[in-house]
Design brief:
Blueprint (H helix, E strand, L loop, with lengths): L2 E6 L4 H12 L6 E8 L2 E8 L2 H8 L8 E7 L14 E2 L5 E9 L2 H10 L11 H11 L5 H9 L4 E9 L6 E6 L4 E4 L4 E4 L11 E4 L4 E5 L4 E5 L11 E2 L15 H7 L1 H12 L3 H10 L2 E6 L1 H18 L3 E5 H7 L8 E7 L5 H12 L3 E6 L5 H5 L2 E4 L12 H20 L5 H12 L1 H10 L2 H10 L4 E6 L4 H15 L2 E6 L16 E5 L6 H13 L3 E6 L4 H4 L2 E4 L8 H19 L18
Parallel strand pairs: 15-16, 15-17, 17-18, 18-19, 20-21, 20-22, 22-23, 23-24
Antiparallel strand pairs: 1-4, 1-10, 2-3, 2-4, 5-6, 6-7, 7-8, 8-12, 9-10, 9-11, 11-14, 12-13
Helix pairs in contact: 3-4, 4-5, 7-13, 7-15, 8-13, 9-13, 9-17, 10-11, 13-14, 13-20, 15-20, 16-20, 17-20
The protein binds fructose -6-phosphate.
Length: 602
């Protein structure tokens, strides 16, 4: 939701922080602020808007000091303005902090502190923390003690960066249900919400767990338990992401770069998982109840997963949005249940809550995750990584196709274990699967016409995406991509559902995007296309069949591909179409309004 970056060392802190904030902007971009510290005390600059203009407006690169903390915000409490931007301070101005998360009991704490004479400047839940520490400091041995006592009174989720003017040689970082990772350098240390923020300086990372805090100095880091203050030994992890992966590398937007990275990402997902899949499939086969839980695009991947498990392996699986599952699944989970959580970030609050519920009920929990060391990987009993590399664009693209890749591998292996497909048939499918990166590459190299198509559609107000079977989720995903970055209303639905209501919305010229691979369901799709055309719709069909050349208004030619693999290949033109529509309408596809990449609050 929000992004945090902290630095202590020999460099000018403001420079490291501004760079880090730019890399974290995908987490929130409605306001930002920086605090730095030198011998003279704390210096704070903050304002509403995106980082780039704020750097010059506020002179963020002219701040003194070799330690500091920055924040980029996605508002929850209080409108995005200068006053509500982080850092927030106590009455004395000696304590400054930034926060990612939500403090649920801030109203009662604020009331209590007001009665004790504290004056509040902002509408945020965060400011209460600074005053609470100030209050505890009156009766504590030292700052660390006061901070610990104050934080133990908070309810909710928080990752915090805290600086105290009275201790010029250190910074504090705290984690409770919001991400925070330390970066270890030589003579300098970092902390951030996500690794790309400090990847330029170090690849050595220490992931904090919930209820832990870190004391950073130039030369050292110490991790302790919030409850007891006792030290915790943490493993240092070597991150294998490169800086190039976190940069645009000549593309106008991260989203486009990430779309074009898909052949490489899919290959990495295959190679990174091939040794692990047999044992994991063996494990899945043991459970009679399999549930997929996820949100947004990951939920669409889960829907594909269900189709794959059922069609290829005859394994029944249910799919539910984690936000529903977490409140509804209490009575159906037990030791015979396997919950497969799909989450790019590994930090989505609802997905984590669903996983924790499953664990409480004795279920086995598996996670399919992109971000190494993220919270989901700690909660899960089994983790498979998607190996997509950092995804900076807010709209998920390469993480979706790599989730599908992992799910396809699992389903094929499950089919083998459960004896649901003939070995010969399975071998043919596996061979075709290995060719998917090339198929995606060929779709990308023929994508030129999509920009032209987008030009002709850019003033439309509504879109419909239809598909059948395993491509119902493709229709949902196509519609979601369009909505979130172009701000055009779009609905994705199963083509069979069309005449049960939505057909009433079709009129002259409304675009209907039909995912129509040849095969079992082709004729059914053609009937739905005809129905749409009869109501004046403008049909854009994605197909490998020439038959549609006459029927559809526009045919996006696709390579022939096994039905089970169509979701990976067919989503690619939909991503590109949404991208061009967003750009043509003057939107920044990397930072859609009102959205943030990790939804770490409920
Ligand atoms: C859409 C998108 C979101 C995420 C959703 C879940 O492009 O990115 O819908 O898919 O917020 O996020 P993760 O996968 O991190 O749990």
């Amino acid at each position: 939701m929000c992004g945090i970056i902290g630095y202590i060392g020999g460099r000018r802190a403001c420079e490291v922080i501004v760079k880090g904030l730019k890399r974290l902007e995908y987490r929130g971009y409605d306001s930002a602020g920086v605090v730095t510290g030198d011998g003279e005390g704390l210096h704070i600059r903050k304002g509403a808007g995106r980082i780039d203009p704020l750097v010059s407006e506020l002179g963020l690169l002219n701040m003194p000091g070799n330690r500091g903390i920055g924040h980029t915000r996605w508002a929850t409490h209080g409108v995005p303005n200068e006053i509500n931007a982080h850092p927030h301070t106590d009455c004395s101005g000696k304590i400054a902090l930034v926060h990612n998360g939500i403090i649920e009991n801030y109203l009662e704490l604020r009331e209590e502190l007001r009665k004790k004479g504290h004056t509040f400047k902002s509408d945020t839940d965060t400011e209460v923390i600074a005053h609470l520490i100030e209050e505890e400091l009156k009766s504590s041995r030292n700052f660390e003690d006061a901070m610990r006592r104050a934080l133990l009174r908070l309810k909710g989720s928080f990752a915090l960066g805290i600086v105290y003017a009275g201790e010029p040689d250190r910074l504090y970082f705290v984690r409770n249900e919001s991400p925070l990772v330390l970066g270890l350098g030589t003579g300098e240390n970092f902390a951030a919400s996500d690794v790309p923020a400090f990847l330029e300086y170090t690849r050595k990372a220490v992931f904090l767990d919930d209820g832990e805090y870190a004391v950073l100095t130039r030369e050292s880091y110490t991790v302790k338990k919030l409850k007891t203050g006792e030290k915790v030994e943490k493993p240092v992890q070597e991150i294998d992401w490169t800086l190039d992966m976190a940069e645009k590398s000549g593309y106008p937007h991260f989203m486009l770069k990430e779309i074009y990275e898909q052949p490489r990402a899919i290959k990495d997902a295959i190679h990174g998982n091939s040794d692990l899949i047999p044992a994991v499939a063996e494990e899945i086969a043991k459970y009679s109840k399999v549930f997929f839980v996820a949100m947004g695009t990951s939920y669409h991947a889960a829907l594909v997963g269900k189709y794959l498990f059922q069609r290829l392996a005859g394994k029944i699986a249910l799919v539910e949005e984690a936000s529903e599952f977490r409140y509804e699944a209490e009575n159906i989970l037990d030791g015979d249940s396997l919950v497969i959580a799909i989450t790019q970030s590994g930090e989505t609050a609802d997905t984590l809550a669903a996983m924790k519920l499953a664990k409480r009920k004795g279920a086995k929990v598996m996670a399919i995750v992109n971000v190494v060391g993220s919270m989901a990987t700690r909660v899960a009993d089994i983790t498979l990584y998607t190996h997509a590399g950092p995804e900076i664009g807010v709209a998920a693209t390469k993480t979706y196709t790599t989730q599908l890749t992992v799910l396809t591998m699992l389903a094929m292996e499950l089919a083998r274990k459960l004896g649901r497909m003939r070995e010969e048939e399975l071998k043919t499918l596996e061979d075709e699967f290995m060719n998917v990166p090339q198929l995606v590459e060929s779709v990308l190299s023929h994508a030129g016409g999509l920009e032209e198509l987008a030009e002709s559609l850019k003033d439309q107000r509504d879109f419909f995406y239809i598909g059948r079977g395993i491509n119902v989720p493709t229709a949902l995903e196509g519609a979601l991509k369009l909505k979130e970055i172009s701000y055009i209303h779009a609905e994705g639905l199963s083509a069979g559902e069309l005449k049960h209501g939505p057909l009433a919305l079709l009129e002259e010229g409304v675009p209907v995007v039909a995912i129509t691979p040849s095969g079992r369901l082709f004729d059914k799709m053609v009937s739905n296309i005809e129905e749409s055309k009869a109501r004046g719709a403008m049909v854009v069909a994605l197909s490998d069949s020439d038959e549609l050349r006459e029927t559809a208004d526009v045919l996006v030619e696709m390579p022939p591909v096994n039905e089970a693999l169509t979701p990976i290949v067919y989503v690619v033109p939909l991503q590109i179409l949404a991208y061009h529509l967003a750009v043509l309408r003057g939107n920044d596809p990397d930072k859609p309004r009102n959205l943030a990449k990790s939804v770490t609050v409920e």
